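Q: Got a minute? One more chain.
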Amino acid sequence: MNRLLSSGLLAAALLFVPTLAGPAAAAPAPTASPSATAAPTVTARGDIVFLAQDPWFPSGPLEVTVKNPGATAAKGFFVLRLPNSVEPTSGGDCKAISGTPRSWLCGGAELPAGGERAYRLVVTSSAPKPVFGVSAWGSVAGRDAAGVTDQFTDFRINWPDRASLRLRATAAPVVDGMTTVRVQVTNTGTFDIGGYSLNITTPAGVRVTAPACSDSGRMNGVGCEIPRRRVIADSATDSFDVRLTVTAGTKTVQLSLAPTDRYTNKDSALTLRLGGTGGSGAGDATTPPPADPTATPTPTPTPTPTTVGTSTPEAAQLPRTGTSGSTYGLIGAVLLALGVGLLVLRRRMSRG
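A: Always. Here it is, folded:
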C-alpha cells in the first residue's frame, strides 16, 4: 500500500511540472539583433486617398510629405508604388522607373537640413468597370540623390462607397412636339457623394435635346446618358430639366441612375409616359443588379529591389500545437485526488 501511494503522489508531482513551466517555455522572447543600416537621408510618408467624382474613373488627391532628417541640405526624391488599376495623373513630377513595374520616381526638390516638402498628386482608378466599397494599398519611400532609399511605408486607397439616391421625375404635356422633364435626385444616404449619370432609354420618335448627352457609348445607341458631376450633400437634392422632342403620339421613356450596381435602394429607376396630359414618376421598384466581383481591384505585390527595405504587416499570432498546459493540469489534479484518497483509505485500514 505504501508503494502504491508513493507512486500516485510521484506521478501527480511530475504532471504538475509542465503545467507550471509550460507558458514560460512556449514562446521564448526574440533576441534583438543590432542593425547595421545607417539612418536614412530622406524619408517619405503618404496620406490616405479617397477616390470620388466620376464613378467610372474616380480620382482623388494623394499628399506625400518628404523630409530631410540629415544635418546637411539634400535633394528629396520619393519612390511611389501603386496597386493595379491605379495610376498617377498629375503632380509630383513623377516618372516611371524602368524595370520596376508599378513604380514611379517623384520629387527632387532641394531640402534644407531638417526641412520638408509636401507633394500633392492626383491618382485615378483605371478599373474596367465601376468599383465600390473596396480598398487597396500603395506605398512610398524617401530617396536621396545618391539613390539611398528609406523603407517603404503604406497608405490606403479607398474607392467610393455604395450610395442611396432616390429618383423622381415629372413630365410636362407635349406641346408642338416638345416636352420638359423635371428630374429630382435626392441623396438619402448619410454622406456626401459626387458624380453619377442619368440614363434615359428612348424609343423611336423621342430624342433628348438638352442637356448634352455623353459620347461614352455606354447606352449603345438606345438613349442618352447625362453625366452629373456635382457633389450632393446628404439629404440634398439635385434638380434639373431635360428637354425632349416627341413625335407620333404617346411615348414611354425609362429613366435610371447609373452605374446601376452602385445604389443600395430600389427607387433609382422609373418609367414616364409622355403625352398631351404630361406624366410623373416616383421611382418604380427596380432592383439593382449585384456588383460584379471580378471588378474589385486587388493590389498585386511588386518585387522589391535589393537596395530598398519593405514594410511588412504585423504578423498574426501563431496557433499553439500539441497538448496544452491546461490538459496537463487536469490530469495532474485527477491523480493528486487519487493519491489523497489512497492515503485516507490507508489510515482507515490502519485504525481498523
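A: The longest strand covers residues 116-125.
Q: Perfect, thanks.
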